[in-house]
Amino acid sequence: MKPKYFLILSFLFLISYNAQAQTAKPKLVVGLVIDQMRWDYLYKFKEQYGAQGFNRLLKEGFAAENTFIPYTPTYTAPGHTCVYTGSVPAIHGIVGNNWYDKSVNKWVYCTDDSTVNTVGANSKAGKMSPANMWTTTITDELRLSNNFKSKVIGIALKDRGAILPAGHSGNAAYWYDAGKWITSSYYMKELPKWVNDFNVKDEPGVAMKKDWETLYNIKNYTLSTADDKPYEANIKGEKTVTFPHKLSAIDEKDKYEAFKTTPYANTYTLNFAKEAIKNENLGKNGVTDFLAVSISTDYLGHAFGPNSVEIQDCYLRLDYEIGMF
Fold it and tell me: What is the pLDDT of residue 23?
């Protein structure tokens, strides 16, 4: 596994909050983790952000800018687990995305679980659960606090970004596999109808029929380095590393994997999160519910670098998507 920049930006904000009663419990908490988002992106692109996305969170929320969890390594799995447990790898047990377990003499993936099966696909991508995590999460403690009345759902392109934040007692966790959302028999025997209906729309396939051009005129991307750098990697199936990215020309066999390295994957994740809120009646259960969402911008970061035009465009688009969400 390649090392990665990994500064988790975690927003916990309240929906349907009762402004008349400041002590009232929130109906729904949304935990939003943006994988590989650097702290300076909040301010670096501030003038190009709209009023309803990152700027709204900074203006109406609380920015804890002197917060530090002393953990290593800086990978997706330990990072998410540290945020949701408030603990460190030596205690919560998630010491990497992968690690070597001397007791069984083999490499272990953070959410591997051979006792469960994939739900929603024929692949092995669903043989996952939170079994390797030793501690409880804030989502577990929420469910424990009211005898498991709260609903908790985790959503992310990556299995580890959905499973670990949802905790041991999550009602569901969904992750991406070859163009659709899947889960594990740890949570359910079959996908709910609303998830199957969402999958039928094939948003990734539709998105990959159009090319990726910058949201604004590329001349306005002055906070980025040149569009063509020798260290940049191309999107899977593409032959160049510059705009416009010809997604529509990518072979059918590569399109669903390539999709993860586009900003449309963020839109797809948040669209699915909206459907979860609506179809699971989150915030309408008489207790506090929790939706844990992870946005995987690190696919783009790994390919193009933290100062690329692609990253700037990704965050300008994500700012808009968060505002709409």
Answer: 67
